[in-house]
Design a protein that fits this description.
heterodimer, A: alpha+beta, four-stranded antiparallel β-sheet, 23 strands, elongated, B: five-stranded mixed β-sheet, two-stranded antiparallel ribbon, 7 helices, 19% strand, globular
């Protein structure tokens, strides 16, 4: 199906030329008319979705269309359910804010009460133009979900993940994505997740037709390659194009996971979305990092509790610009607060959502970056309503609810896209602070120690790394990657026999763990046990026949072996 | 306002030669899909369910599977299902296509002059009205309480008002909540 998109640039001049941008009736005639007073409000706030073939179910472009839904428009705007914009005004200034003024809402109400008059047709401004192609032009690469997903006719909202494989031969730098979700009305929003290690394939195993269910997705990710961008899409908005220098890397072999949220619409529909990727030849020069505050471990909400609060905080080790914010809770979430306490003790609001609605979640990008100096503490404080008075409560009667990624579980996450100030890549100090914070919060969690250990090792702090990795191994002795990394730390500390032992444990637990084979071979070679080293190295080199470096190293080892024999 | 009972209207129709008003009443509908006036209250039924729909209303379309489920539950128990289309501009082909696409149960009936709408006092799409065997309206309102308001819905309905009303009629019990608030599109917004 052709997908409709909007030429926003073409819209703006006509709107600005129109008199009624504010929607306020002019002094000469108190009775609002469609052309003069209502159309400008609809064109600016509603028709991006409510146009023929658009994402919303009916069109509000023409007088006829608007009049046929006049009472619904009045009701939905009065309750501020439409347009769906959750942040409270004055608590962060966001791009694409879709919020009607009180005057606009009153104007709509007045118009409907007056019988929704059209007024002189000549007063109707030129409507926005809609086009059926990709909004940012033809993408450089279109990746389609390999299998369609069947959305049932009825039942509650559901969440599905499509796993896609971009066909690229070399590394690409992506500056924008656009999603064409297929049949209109169905997708509420989507998140694109770059899976660099293929962990989504494991998640996909449960479903023979491909893809997998779930509201939230976690993929494995190297600590040296943190997430830097929000790849979020919602209907009715111009796809976000990264500014110069903010491109992100897509490597051959990476997978893209499209995490989608569907609402059944009365009839069965097949959905097979496409992702359009727009490349740039400029590698990134800016290195933002997405940090996550979370209070999932505090989520144990008693049945019936109308106001259960959780919080988390994070002290910034560097000066940063906050570029964007993405709150996430499920159906019990009510009031979501995010703010920073600056070093001088003052409070700077980042976001306030007084009445959270999961169905309209979004990434909010600041019109101007919010500057937070080093030492500022970012806070999230979320309130949950697990009473039966909360109509969105998925449990009836209410049940005790804990953290999880099903719709009936809860979550308390706040992600922020930060750009450390200053030139170059300043992500490491933030990552380290995050990891130390994580260990404080979850002292018995394997991954927290593992991550910090890996990071410390990468900056050759073998002593501290060894302590973290030894803790990780103690917490979960069955993880070959932890033994392997501990081996590297020990090797760096000159504890060669201890290192060999760790590599061998890793290989005992996973005989195909090539990293450990490689590290073992190198350690053996350093000890002069060349013949043994060659044996392990052959395995690694055979697995990567195209790696010139490995082949070269193997040749060197073989030469050493030969020399040793002589 | 209570409009005259259909059966009575038909009786008056027999005297139409001398009574122009009754002819006008019949000519104002409702109509079957071929355009002929039709009296849905004719014949025997233990209960009649009218579902008022606008094909452009997402909430009423979303309800199609639930309405189908309810119709199936009461199949062969003397319950008639009518899908009332008050939209003047809806053509026969468009109505058939829409009914089929969403799988609405029962028989479609055109009500361009909103005769049934007024008789049932319906205002919303989707809104249901249940009439008992005597032709008395015993329930009017939502199908269930999935929607609290436009844009505010439950994950699943917790009351099943239409289903309960039909069950009550069949059991000869009074309907506990004879009027509920339907959420959706306004019928009065139609041309």
């Amino acid at each position: 199906m052709k997908h409709l998109a909007i030429l926003f640039l073409a819209v703006a001049p006509s709107l600005l030329a129109g008199r009624g941008l504010s929607g306020a009736p002019s002094g000469s005639s108190p009775q609002p008319r469609f052309g003069r007073d209502i159309a400008p409000i609809l064109y600016q706030n509603c028709v991006a979705c409510h146009h023929p073939g658009g994402h919303a179910p009916f069109s509000l472009v023409t007088y006829q269309g608007a009049r046929q839904h006049a009472r619904a428009i009045a009701s939905a705007t009065r309750s501020r359910r439409m347009p769906p914009w959750l942040p409270a005004p004055g608590y962060g200034d966001f791009l694409g804010t879709q919020r009607l003024t009180n005057t606009q809402i009153q104007t709509v109400g007045k118009w409907v009460r007056a019988g929704a008059p059209e007024g002189p047709p000549a007063q109707v401004p030129v409507p926005p133009r809609f086009m059926s192609e990709w909004q940012l032009g033809t993408p450089d690469l279109i990746v389609k979900a390999p299998h369609p997903f069947t959305v049932p006719a009825g039942g509650p909202n559901l969440f599905w993940n499509f796993v896609m494989t971009p066909d690229i031969k070399t590394t690409k730098y992506v500056r924008a994505i656009e999603i064409r979700p297929g049949p209109r009305n169905l997708i509420h929003h989507a998140n694109l997740i770059v899976d660099r290690v293929g962990s989504s394939l494991r998640l996909e195993k449960s479903s023979p037709a491909g893809g997998f269910p779930g509201m939230d997705v976690t993929v494995d990710r190297s600590v040296f390659d943190p997430i830097g961008h929000f790849l979020f899409w919602k209907p009715g908005t111009v796809p976000y194009s990264e500014p110069d220098g903010f491109s992100w890397r897509l490597d051959p072999g990476n997978y893209l996971v499209l995490n989608t949220h569907f609402q059944p619409h009365g009839k069965v529909a097949e959905v097979q979305p496409e992702v359009g990727l727009y490349f740039t030849n400029k590698p990134p020069t800016k290195f933002p990092i997405v940090i996550e505050l979370e209070a999932d471990n505090q989520l144990d909400i008693p049945a019936g509790d109308p106001d259960f609060a959780v919080s988390d905080h994070f002290r910034l080790p560097e000066d940063v610009d906050v570029l964007a914010i993405y709150p996430h809770a499920h159906y019990l979430g009510k009031r979501l607060e995010a703010y920073a306490i600056l070093p001088n003790g003052s409070r700077k609001w980042l976001l306030l959502i007084p009445d959270w609605n999961m169905d309209w979640q979004a990434v909010y990008r600041y019109r101007k970056p919010v500057v937070l100096p080093k030492g500022s503490v970012i806070w999230m404080r979320y309130h949950y309503d697990n009473s039966s008075a909360n109509p969105r409560n998925p449990n009836h009667p209410p049940k005790r609810v804990r953290a999880g990624n099903q719709a009936t579980d809860e979550m308390a996450h706040l992600s922020l896209q930060l750009l450390p100030r200053g030139a170059g890549d300043h992500r490491r100090p933030i990552q380290e602070a995050l990891m130390r914070n994580d260990i404080k919060k979850h002292p018995a969690e394997f991954q927290a120690h593992m991550n910090l250990g890996a990071l410390l090792l990468s900056r050759l702090d073998a002593q501290d790394a060894e302590a973290q990795l030894a803790t990780a191994v103690r917490l979960d002795p069955k993880r070959p990657e932890a033994h392997d990394m501990l081996g590297v730390a020990l090797e760096n500390l000159g504890r060669s026999s201890d290192a060999l032992l760790e590599f061998r444990i890793a290989l005992r637990d996973d005989p195909h763990y090539l990293d450990a084979d490689y590290n073992l071979a190198m350690a053996l070679a350093r000890r002069g046990q060349i013949a043994e080293a060659v044996k392990d190295f052959r395995l690694v080199a055979a697995a990567y026949p195209k790696s010139a470096l490995l082949q070269k190293q193997l040749r060197q080892l073989l030469a050493e072996e030969k020399a040793g024999h002589k | 306002m209570n409009l005259p009972h259909f059966r009575r209207a038909r009786n008056v129709l027999a005297l139409s030669v001398v009574c122009g008003v009754a002819v006008a009443a019949a000519a104002s509908g409702p109509f079957d899909l071929s355009g002929k006036p039709i009296d849905p209250f004719q014949g025997k039924a233990r209960a009649r369910v009218f579902l008022f729909v606008r094909s452009d209303c997402p909430i009423s379309n979303q309800y199609a599977p639930e309405v189908r489920r309810i119709a199936k539950e009461f199949a062969n128990r003397g319950v008639e299902f009518w899908v009332v289309v008050p939209d003047k501009t809806a053509t026969k082909a468009a109505i058939i296509k829409h009914m089929k696409a969403y799988g609405f149960p029962g028989q479609a009936i055109r009500d361009p002059n909103q005769v049934l709408v007024k008789r049932a006092k319906a205002t919303i799409s989707p809104e249901a009205a249940v009439f008992n065997a005597a032709g008395k309206e015993v329930y009017r309102g939502r199908i269930d309480n999935l929607y609290v308001n436009i844009g505010l819905e439950r994950r699943a309905a917790t009351t099943h008002d239409l289903e309960a009303a039909i069950s009550a009629v069949l059991a000869g019990r009074p309907v506990k909540q004879p009027v509920t608030k339907a959420v959706g599109c306004w019928l009065a917004d139609l041309d």
